[in-house]
Amino acid sequence: MNPTVLTPILDWLDIAGIALFALSGAVLAARLRQTFVTMGFFALVTGVGGGTVRDLLIGAPVFWITDAWVAAVCLGTALIAWFTPVHWWEGKGFAYADGAGLAAYAVLGSAKAVAYGIPPVPAALMGVITGCVGGIIRDVVAGRPSIIMSPELYVTPAALSSVMTVGGVFAARALGLPDGLAWSLAFACGFALRSAAIRWEWGLPIYGEGREEA
């Protein structure tokens, strides 16, 4: 795949991931009763943080520097958050939307890495970075514990989407199938795992859990 060209599927995943992550950043700033400037900053850093790190690591042009629409989408979501009550964005519904953004960004990040010729394992890691780093930066700036510091399944769904994207792309090409099939399946599986974790509060085992102290 030509790395300078995104397919319509990846275009939509890109915009969806940016908008959902940017909204999560703006809503966090709203909960902290910050100004619109701070909300805009949180929206931008959450929306583009993971993709920026990915592009720097794989040697690609930083996506939001070359596409003016990205910053506009982030600031637009901050504007939506500014003019809407915070309680609109509370509860599990917003968590599901964030899970969709996580899976979308994980697919996009790993697919872009594959397009730039990155080997399979680092390419899958680029998907995880794309999906998770923006939220980590948001939480660090806000001075709150990040979700990755809890046993809740968050990084794992991103890793599932990323691994399935990389493996699926190579399998699809070997079978003469379109890459979009692999992307769609990887997104669906990652989102399904994240949704199940939200619904049933699934988490990973904690180190030392169930063992008595010596």
Helix and strand layout, with pairings?
Blueprint (H helix, E strand, L loop, with lengths): L7 H24 L4 H23 L4 H4 L1 H15 L9 H24 L4 H23 L12 H21 L3 H22 L14
What do these coordinates show?
With 214 residues, the protein is mostly helical. The chain has one domain (8-200). The chain is built from eight helices and no strands. It has helices spanning 8-31, 36-58, 63-66, 68-82, 92-115, 120-142, 155-175, 179-200. It is globular. The protein starts with 7 loop residues before the first helix and ends in a 14-residue tail after the last helix. The relative contact order is 0.14.
- Element-by-element helix/strand order: HHHHHHHH
Q: What's the pLDDT, averaged over the residues?
A: 89
- Strand tally is 0
User: Residue share in helices?
Assistant: over 70%
Largest sheet: none
Low-confidence stretches: none
- Amino-to-carboxy terminus distance: 55 Å
Helix-strand makeup class: mainly alpha
- Given the C-alpha coordinates, what overall shape results? globular
> What portion of residues belong to β-strands?
under 5%
**Number of structurally distinct domains:** 1
Number of helices: 8
- CA gyration radius, whole angstroms: 17 Å
Offer a quick outline of the entry.
This protein has 214 residues and is mainly alpha-helical. It is 73% helix and 0% strand.
Output the keywords.
globular, mainly alpha, about 210 residues, 8 helices
